[in-house]
Structure formats: C-alpha cells, structure tokens
User: Fold these one by one.
Assistant:
Number 1:
Amino acid sequence: MKIVLLVGSIVGTKTRIAVRTMEALMKEDNSDTEIVVLDLGKLDVIFSDGRQYFEYEGDTNYVATQLMEADGIIIGTPTFQSSIPGTLKNVFDLLPIYAFRDKQIGIIATAGSSKHFLMVEHHLKPILSYMKGEVIPSYVFIEEKDYDKKVIVNHDTIVRLKRLRDQLLLNLETLEKRKKEIDSMYDF
C-alpha cells in the first residue's frame, strides 16, 4: 500500500509541520506501508501546459506519477485568500480528470483563523470529487493558535490527525480486502 502526503504550498511552515507530523504518526503503526512525502517547496514543479502527466520530466513527472500511483493521499494545504494555493491547483491541473479514482483522500488544512474553514468545503472538496477521489468527510483544520515554536501543541489537533490517519488506513484496508474477494470470484 502506498500513501502520498502532499505539502500543497511552496511557502510557510505550518502546513509543512502538520504534514510532517502526519508522516510521523503514519510511521508509528505502519511499517509495511510505503509513505512518500511530496513537499512542493522542495521540488521544482513547472506550470501545467496541457500535456499528459507522464510526458513531463523531472520533479513535475515525479509528483504527478507519485500521485497517480498512490492508494491513499493526504493533502496538506494552507488557506490563501480564502482558497487553495496556486501551486496546489497547478498540481491538480497536471493530472487527468480521473487521477483520484479509487483513491482515499484525507485533508489537512491550515489557516490563521477559524473563519477560513469553509475553504475546504467550497474549494478543495469539489475539485477532489470532480477528479473522482473518495474524500474522507472529516478533515483536520489547524489554526495559528494550535502551534507554538514550530510544533503542534494542541492535544485535540494531534487526536484529530490520528483519527484521520486511522480512517484513511481503515478505508484502504477495507477496499483492498474487498477487491481480493471480488478477484477470487473469477478464474482468470
């Protein structure tokens, strides 16, 4: 099983901290799961120009291919101007419309205040659904006040991150089991 954790911005630290915290939580219980972190701030992803995702080269091809090959994805995104960052939208533009078919997708959103929580509902979830993703309904919204000295200090936030991890893994394991059951019904 392959899970990709995506840091959907090239600037700031809070989303990166949240995704890295999720990476550590994932590694606690899942030694057999391949975990890939895609940090757009550390990769050179070019602007989408309409090519097929596999025609790109370098980091752009790497990001697109990792997302296409993933079983599960957790997208970390800050809130910019009550929306997702352009760098994250560019990643979506690199991929085909069906890119997230049969993929479980969790969301971690960061923002300066609670007033931006609807960004996930009105901007991000519709894009992921349009791209055929199975979006986990409960996402983790993290505010400025949940951090101190570049660490998440709010215990409730850590609990919510663990719940998101557990739900993603449960969904993936259930789907994998069901696919095996269906496959075993056929002789070919």
Number 2:
Amino acid sequence: MSLDHVLASLGLAHRDPNSLEARIESLQRDMRRIGRRLSSQAEHTAEDWGDHLSDFGREAARQSRHLAEAAGTQAWRGARAVRRDPLPAIAVIGTAFLLARLLRR
C-alpha cells in the first residue's frame, strides 16, 4: 500500500503541482494577494490625498479671509475718499463711460 493510495482513500489525493487545477488555484491565490495589496495601497493613497486636500482647503480659507479683509479695508478707504471729495470719482466714472462709448463704435 503506497502513500498515494492511502491519501486517495481519505479523499486527499496527491495532485500534480503542474496540473491545470493546481495552476488555476495558484493564479487565484496570486490574484487575491494582488487585490489585497492594491486595496491597501489605494487606501494609503486616499488618506494621503485627503490630508493634502485638507491642508490645501485650510490654506485657501486663510488666504481668502486675508483677501476679504484687504478688499474690505480698501473699499472703506475708497468710500471715505469719495465722501471727502466726490469729484475724482465722478471724473473716473465719466472717463470710463466715455471710453466705453468710443470703443463700442
């Protein structure tokens, strides 16, 4: 009685590692391993991108707040200057209107 006969009687028959079935199982294991690696790398990449986008969003919000403050300050200064002396503002608006009319022709 050989070892192959005993294994076959127990339903554990020795398979040829070069058989089609063994090759398919090996490919399936490899595909599962590759899938797990890709999933893990995709997760790490998503976390990195999330961190970078979060940092970018915070910096954009900070810059926007700074620009809004600067624009508000300039608008307030302009309003005070027009209140003190409206003639330059009228001249600028009139010049812009005249230039627009001339360019339209």
